Amino acid sequence: MSTPVSQQWFDRALSVSPGGVNSPVRAFRAVGGTPRFMVSAEGAWLTDADGERYVDLVGSWGPMLLGHAHPEVVAAVQEAVSKGTSFGTPGTPEVELAEEIVSRTPVELVRLVSSGTEATMSAIRLARGFTGRDMVVKFAGCYHGHVDALLAEAGSGVVTLGLPETPGVPAHVTADTIVLPYNDRAAVEAAFAELGPRIACVITEAAAGNMGVVPPEPGFNQHLSETCRSHGALFISDEVMTGFRVTRSGHWGLDGAHEGWRPDLMTFGKVMGGGFPAAAFGGRADVMGQLAPSGPVYQAGTLSGNPVATTAGLTTLRLADDDVYARVDAVSGSVQSLVAEALTQAGVPHVLQTAGNMFSVFWGVTDPVTDFAGARAQETWRFAAFFHAMLEAGVHLPPSAFECWFVSAAHDDEALSRMAAALPEAARAAAAATDPRTS
Ligand SMILES: Cc1ncc(COP(=O)(O)O)c(C=O)c1O
């Protein structure tokens, strides 16, 4: 599939933006080639500047649960825009979105922000302010946005680009960050035994999706919550990716809803913005009550609770009923079956992992992946061959083996047929691929 117009846009982009992209995960560094420049999207489909159509398995990295340009979301946004795009005063849709979030999740109070990064950064500041402690525990391979203190051993674009650490983050900032292996309860207990009185919080992805999909082992999140409670620290469940995607609330709804525990703070983003920049953090009323103006911990935002973004998010959440989740789960299951069958037929060793309807493939491994070390042991070059064969056949995957694949309720039979047709050849390409370091 030739893409001369995308190439022209990429050349223009390279001359004005670092790497030609506005977020590193959009680059094709890990797979090679030229990113496709999209001009429109509808339902399960993306259309690039050359007029080529692709089945979309990126889903804007999670937000597009309903598919692109859902007519009711578009209509609500158009009406909101026509009433003014930002007031700088409290407005009505932001209250309704906050009510929707509080009604669907365990949080008692919520503050709206504009990005997942802002949500996790603010949640950590609040945890530190509330506890009067400085140290933060995170897990290797989890990504919580580009917050200075949380970039240590991060997943997503940081691992895709193979960056061991990020210049620009002062050593004293990460000195208070403790990085532990994911799913390792003994490591958590050892860290608390040594440093418990100094630990403000533990933050984890509710189910890891940024080193590929690595679900928490049963009871892991609950163990984190209980360990935090017994040491006077707060447990922050980062549901920016999982929230409102895998259930009406998020992974907490799958993992903890019936166990009688809840996170102290949660962070949300992606789906709750309906494709616009909106995110949130919330939790226990006594903790959230420490935020300005109720309390002394400062946090603010010119566009927080923006009326257009909150209208898009509110409309999306209201449309995301049980039927939508059933549809997304069914689509996800169909795609997983197609992928597993094609890879098995072609003889590609792989492990396909899920967290609700989120899933990803680990290439060239045979045992379940439970942590970052396992995720990094995969044969990423097999994915690069697979990725390009799928792209040529009109299926756009995330351009990294360390990312989750996202489907939507709008992925219909036509989209599934396109994938089914593309998969055998792509699986053969993965089987035939060789490690560029040894060939
Ligand atoms: C779990 C998680 N937390 C936080 C973030 C950061 O969100 P944003 O990119 O909106 O800043 C992401 C982004 O992918 C994420 O997956």
Q: Strand portion, in percent?
A: 5-15%
Total DSSP helices: 15
Q: What is the H-and-E element order?
A: HEEEHHEHEHHEHEHEHEEHHHEEHHEH
Major sheet: 7 strands, mixed
Record the strand order, biggest sheet: 4-10-9-8-7-5-6
DSSP, total strands:
13
List ligands, each type once.
pyridoxal-5'-phosphate
Please tell me the overall pLDDT: 95
As a percent range, the share of helical residues equals: 25-40%
Query: Structural class per helix/strand content?
Result: alpha/beta
Outline: globular
Rg of Cα set? 21 Å
**Residue ranges: pLDDT <50 for 5 or more in a row?**
none
Distance between the amino and carboxyl termini: 27 Å
Q: What does the model show?
A:
By secondary structure, the protein is of the alpha/beta class. About 40% of the residues lie in helices and about 15% in strands. The protein has 15 helices and 13 strands. It has helices at about 5-15, 70-80, 90-105, 115-130, 155-160, 170-175, 185-195, 220-230, 250-255, 285-290, 305-320, 320-345, 370-375, 380-390, 415-430; strands spanning about 40, 45-50, 55, 110-115, 135-140, 175-180, 200-205, 235-240, 265-270, 280-285, 350-355, 360-365, 395. It has a 7-stranded mixed sheet with strand order 4-10-9-8-7-5-6, with helices on both faces. Strands 1-2-3-13 form a 4-stranded mixed sheet. Strands 11-12 form a two-stranded antiparallel ribbon. β8, α9 and β9 (about 265-270) form a beta-alpha-beta unit. α7 packs parallel to α8 and α12 packs parallel to α15. The model has no long low-confidence stretch (mean pLDDT about 95). It binds pyridoxal-5'-phosphate (PLP). Pyridoxal-5'-phosphate binds near residues 61, 115, 117, 145 and 156. Pyridoxal-5'-phosphate binds near residues 61 and 144.
